[in-house]
Amino acid sequence: MNLTERIDKIMAELESCYNLRVFEGNDPYRVLIRTILSQRTRDENTDQASALLFSKYQTIEEIAEADVENLEPLIHKAGFYHVKARRIKMVSQILLDDYDGVVPEDVDELLNLPGVGRKTANCVLVYGFKKPAVCVDVHVHRISNRLGLVETRTPEQTEIELMKVIPKDYWIELNDLLVQFGQTICQPVSPLHDKCPINDWCDYYHDMIP
Fold it and tell me: Which residues are catalytic?
């Protein structure tokens, strides 16, 4: 079986196991802020910090005008809250000043924003605009290497290599499916091999078999 056939089977199986959370209604600004909050923290911490932040400040104008000291306790759970509070306020002000409060759909424009790297920019494209991009977080990086789809050391390298081997039709759903799979089955420590639906196409699993 060649690599393209393996990818087709892996994606088909994951599609049958998980409901996609990528949908048209995602607000690009909230996706951007949430992804900045997600840096170097766990998913559940991001969820809590994002929910608390937007429960108090609903608009880009409110966050841009808020004092950093008032933002910090709301996002404390996300970690590095001093830095992240300053960043989300700064990003919000830049968007208001330079983009009329509208998040740009261009990856290069997104990368010019403070605290926005390739993962964040690509996540905004995928989740905010439903545009094809390969969004590589810790789950995608780990699982892609375990499966044997890539052999890379960094998420940046993983993005480049996945763009070469993953058909573009899968790009939008790739992150969402692998994140859910990484949270439930292919965990960083003690992955649940006995419950894994894609063992047949996983190099990591087959390398463990005596």
Answer: 119, 137
The pLDDT assigned to 125 comes to 96
The residue type of 209 is I
Q: Which CATH architecture has domain 3-20+135-208?
A: Orthogonal Bundle (1.10)
Residue whose entry in the numeric block shows the structure tokens 């919000």: 92
Domain 28-129: what homologous superfamily?
Hypothetical protein; domain 2 (1.10.340.30)
pLDDT one-digit tens code per residue, 103-127: 999 999 999 999 999 999 999 999 9
- As a whole number of angstroms, the distance between CA 68 and CA 89 comes to 7
By C-alpha distance, which of 14, 13, 75, 68 is closest to 41?
A: 75
Q: For 13-47, what is each residue's pLDDT tens digit?
A: 999 999 987 655 689 999 999 999 999 999 899 99
* Statement: the pTM of the whole predicted model exceeds 0.90: yes
State the alpha helices, DSSP H only, in the chain: 3-17, 28-38, 43-56, 60-65, 68-71, 81-99, 107-111, 118-123, 129, 138-147, 155-165, 171-184, 203-208
Contact 199, 192 (CB under 8 A): no
